[in-house]
Every structure is written in C-alpha cells, then in structure tokens.
Write a structure and sequence with these properties.
Blueprint (H helix, E strand, L loop, with lengths): L4 H8 L2 H47 L2 H8 L6 H30 L3 H10 L2 H4 L6 H6 L3 H24 L9 H19 L13 H35 L2 H38 L1 H37 L8 H17 L2 H7 L4 H25 L1 H18 L5 H16 L3 H14 L1
Helix pairs in contact: 1-18, 2-4, 2-5, 2-8, 2-10, 2-11, 4-5, 4-10, 8-9, 10-15, 10-16, 11-12, 11-13, 12-13, 12-17, 13-16, 15-16
C-alpha cells in the first residue's frame, strides 16, 4: 500500500530540521537586535565581514566534511582516515587564515573591517574540531550534532546581546563567531577524549591518504567556492559600489527571507531519504512524490511571499525602525525569489541521484558569471533593488533557463511544471489534510 507523502515527511522529520530552523531563527533575531541598536551602517560592517569569512571558510575546510562522511562507511583504517583529515584541515586553516588577512589588507581601507576579519579568521583553527561531527551524522545520531550546534548558536547570540548591552565597539562583534566555533570544537573534543562517546583509536597521519583525500575533495571545494560566491557576491558589490548602510538594509532583509528558505531546506532534507528510496524502487512513485513535495512548497511560498509583500514593511519597521523601510518593488522581487527557490530546490538532489555532477557545476559557474555582470551593472543604478533583481534573474536562469539545454535535467524541470497541476487536484489537499491531522 502506498504511504502518503505527508505521513512520510512527518515520520522523517528529525533533528536536522530543528538545527536548520534554530539557526535561521536565532540568527534572524540577533540580526534584528543588532540592526535596531547599531543601525544599518553597523549591520553593514558586520555583514561584509561575515560575507568575506564565508567565502574563505570554504578554503578552510577543503570540502572534507562530505568526503569523510562517505569514507567512514568503507575505510578499513579509520584512525588514519580521520588523522589525515584533521591534518589537512589544520593545514587548510593556516592557508585560509593567511589568505583572508592578505585579501583584507589589500581590499579594504577601513581598519574596523580589517581588525574584525583578523579576529574572525581564528575561527578557521577551531573549526578543525568539527571533523568529529561526521561520526554522529554517520551513526544517525543527529540529536548530538544538533544540540552542540544550537549550544554554539546560543552562546554566540548571548555574546552579541552582552556587547549590545555594554555598547561595545563594533570590532567586538567579530568575537561571537569565533566563540561559536570554539564551543562546538570543545564539545566534540570533550565527547571524544573525556566521555569516550566516539570509538576511535589514536589518530595517525598518512601522506598517501592525504593525497587521496585531496583528489576526492577538490571538486567539492571548487563547487563550494562557486556556490558561496554566488550568495555573497551581492553583499560584496553593495559594500564597494554603494555604502555600509545600504548593505546593512539589504543584509537584514536577506536574513529575514533566509528563515523561510531554511525551512524549505529542512523540508528537503526531510524528504530526500524517502525520495532516494523511491528513485531506485519505482520512478513513477518517485516523480509523484517529487511533484507533491514541490507543489506543497510552492503553496507555502505563495503564502510566505504574500505575507512579505503585505506585512513586511510594517513588521520590520516596528521591530527595527524606519531606517529599514523597503520599496514595494524590493519586497515583490524577494517574494518571487522565494517562490522560485521553493519550486526548484529539489532539482539538485535529483541531479546527484543521477550522477549529473559536471553539468550542475557548469551551471553554477555560468550563473556566477551572470550574477557578477548583473550586480556590476544594476547596483550602481538601483542599489538594493539592483542587487535583488540580479539575484532573482541569476537564480531563475540557473534553475529554469539553463537546465532546458541539458537533456538529463529537462525531466526534472518538466515535473516541476507538472507539480503546479497538483494544486488543482483534490487528492493533494486530502494528503495535506492527513499531514496536518497527524501533526496535531
């Protein structure tokens, strides 16, 4: 007997969902507090520092997290595998530390920004301890990883509130990110060395193993850099071509919209294991559930986008202040962006299932180039609206236009269009009703 998608989703909702939502909500609330007390200019300074840190953090991890998770399943010498990963990540941390500070010295004239980037770059070293998180992900003990991550987020949020209370210099606001990374690292080391919660012999290092891991991880590193640049490029351009206040206004709106997008990401993570099984069992069932999931996200996106357009300005200005009032056009653009993300975010998982990795990477590179050109042309003319339009057009091209030219991806695109027809079928709302009744 076929089990309804909502029931499957309900059973599969897990700690990863809680982690994603917690991160979005905590980060969103602290951004609102910072915006209220430091204003748009202060938030803009913090936003550019975090954007630069996000880009260089990809270099600091070398994409080894996903490689380690996969290799733990097949490795016959776990101590050599983990020891080599730790050695590589520590080396990458040194490289990331040097590169980010050299870039900061030549790219920015503001001493505030330079000192904040210098302070936050120490987080690269503490992030090495995150290596041990893979053991809990592998053992499906995501509750441990989630509690550790949420603990770090809460400590970071508490530090920001304390700095706001004491009216600290803005440079201090780089410390919470380092504190969060340090606390996560300390928790995993404690679980490994003191609680003995991770069964792992003494670590050892192998140069041969390091070379093998680099061969496996470099495509992920390159892909991560491209993806991170896409999502941070608008902030970089706004800082360079506009001003800190404009960047702060834009960053707050992005952070608020990210709460909705994190919900969709968690929804996807909950549904992917089920879709993976159906993919190898029955293509017909796979595409049926794929359409149902996409239709449900599209419906939720319409409500979220409509709410943003109608109530975005009153709510934001009430909590943050009139400095963060946005044009209707900007809110409409972001609402459309939410809808496009909801419609297409499962396509990547389908590509990974089918081994469509290279086309996916080429699409990201093309999208990055398009985004670069659009930001460069539109931000000097329209500011925040220009950055919003650039993001919307680039993402739409990546998910709707470019896949038309790739045969393997057209089938996913076609099923995303068919998902809209699901909204006209009574059976879709019946399944949705079942989901809501089981959630109570």
């Amino acid at each position: 007997m076929s089990i309804s998608l909502p029931k499957k989703f309900l059973l599969n909702t897990n700690w990863v969902f809680i982690e994603k939502i917690s991160k979005a909500v905590i980060s969103g609330l602290t951004s609102i507090l910072i915006a209220r007390y430091l204003g748009a200019e202060g938030l803009g300074v913090i936003a550019i520092v975090l954007a630069v840190f996000s880009i260089f953090s990809v270099v600091g991890t070398l994409g080894l997290d996903r490689v380690l998770l996969k290799e733990l399943e097949v490795s016959k010498s776990v101590e050599t595998l983990v020891g080599s990963v730790v050695a590589l990540r520590f080396t990458a941390a040194i490289l990331g530390f040097v590169l980010i500070n050299v870039y900061s010295f030549f790219a920015y004239t503001s001493e505030q920004v330079q000192w904040m980037i210098f302070a936050i770059s120490f987080a690269f070293f503490f992030a090495v301890g995150n290596t041990f998180e893979a053991f809990y992900r592998k053992a499906l003990r995501s509750e441990v990883a989630t509690m550790v991550r949420v603990l770090g987020l809460l400590a970071s949020a508490a530090a920001k509130i304390i700095f706001l209370f004491f009216d600290a210099n803005i440079i201090w606001f780089a410390i919470p990110a380092v504190l969060e990374t340090f606390l996560v690292c300390a928790c995993y080391v404690f679980l490994w060395r003191v609680k003995k919660d991770i069964e792992l012999p003494p670590l050892c290092f192998s140069l041969t193993e390091c070379k093998r891991l680099i061969r496996l991880s470099w495509p992920l590193t390159l892909s991560g850099i491209v993806g991170t640049l896409f999502f941070q490029m608008d902030k970089m351009f706004l800082y360079d071509l506009a001003d800190e206040a404009t960047l702060g206004q834009y960053a707050l709106l992005v952070q608020i919209v990210s709460i909705v997008l994190f919900a969709f990401a968690a929804f996807n993570m909950s549904s992917v294991p089920i879709l993976n099984k159906l993919f190898f069992r029955s293509k017909e069932q796979f595409w049926q559930r794929y359409q149902e999931a996409t239709a449900l996200k599209f419906l939720l996106a319409l409500f979220a986008g409509g709410g943003l357009i109608l109530f975005g300005n009153p709510v934001i200005t009430f909590f943050v202040g009139p400095e963060f009032h946005y044009s209707t056009a900007t809110l409409v653009i972001f609402a459309l962006y939410v809808v496009v993300v909801a419609m297409s975010s499962l396509k990547t998982e389908y590509c990974l299932l089918n081994g469509i990795v290279k086309p996916l990477f080429y699409l990201r590179v093309l999208t990055l180039i398009l985004n670069f050109i659009l930001n460069y042309l539109l931000i000097p003319r329209w500011g925040i609206e220009g950055a919003s339009v650039a993001t919307l057009i680039s993402y739409f091209a990546n998910e709707v236009v470019f896949p038309l030219f790739i045969k393997e991806m057209r089938v996913a695109l076609f099923n995303e269009y068919k998902s809209l027809l699901r909204l006209l079928q009574p059976s879709f709302y019946l399944n949705l009703r079942i989901y809501l009744s089981k959630a109570r």
